[in-house]
Description:
Layout: E1 4-10, H1 12-15, H2 22-33, E2 37-44, H3 48-61, E3 66-70, H4 81-88, E4 93-95, H5 97-109, H6 116-120, E5 123-125, E6 129-131, E7 140-144, E8 149-153, H7 157-176, E9 179-188, H8 192-205, E10 209-214, E11 223-232, H9 235-253, E12 260-263
Helix pairs in contact: 2-7, 3-4, 8-9
Amino acid sequence: MTERAVILSIGYELLQGRVINTNATYISRKLSLLGYEVKAIISVGDNYNDIGKALDFAINALGARIVITTGGLGPTHDDITADAIAKYFRKKLVLNKEAYEMIRSKYESAGMEMTESRVKMALLPEGSKPIPNSVGTAPGIHLRLELVELFALPGVPKEMEAMFEQYVEPILRARTGIQISEGYLEVMGVPESGIAPLIKAIAKKYPIYLKSHPQLHEIESPLVKVYIMATDKERSKARSLCLEACRDLENKLRTLKEAKIIRSCECS
């Protein structure tokens, strides 16, 4: 059974439209390729009550077993993510020695002292592990509980991406063992509504994910891109399934005299 995941983006700058949420796009793509079902992307402000409600909705309403948060781990007064997570899970916020050393070594190497605001970044929920930050200063949070595994990452994209790839991704990949094969097929001359029955038939026939995406005007200049994704524990089997489903769809599309396949599927 595919594990469910929820992405929780924290920060008023997202809600006010001052920052585009590229972090959620990056993480959702990564999770999908790792074999997780992303149930929701939730954006909330730097507010204890809202963060708690979002966590509760993700875990109890949506059944998420993986929760990844971004934002709110810095040194300022409104960086409350660590404390909000601790409060929701009824854990103490404690000084994590490992996190403290990560932060101290970076500031001292730059000739800077450990101020109260810098120490704040080493306060983590009791029982959690710090996620190393190779790009910035604030460590992330890894909290493993009975029902859910939570990863809290900074909001700065370059920091978040480095921490995800270096720490989070290996853990999540080992957890599923899922291999992905995906490809695209492009067909011109037939509107999306015209190929919908064929896509539905293929989706019923094979255990794959199949989705059509119109690229131009539905009637005047129909061009549809069809995305295919297959999964298996073995990479070769996933690719074989992807190719088989794609070729089957191509053959069905060729029965439509208006259809012109301009890109055949090459599953990677």
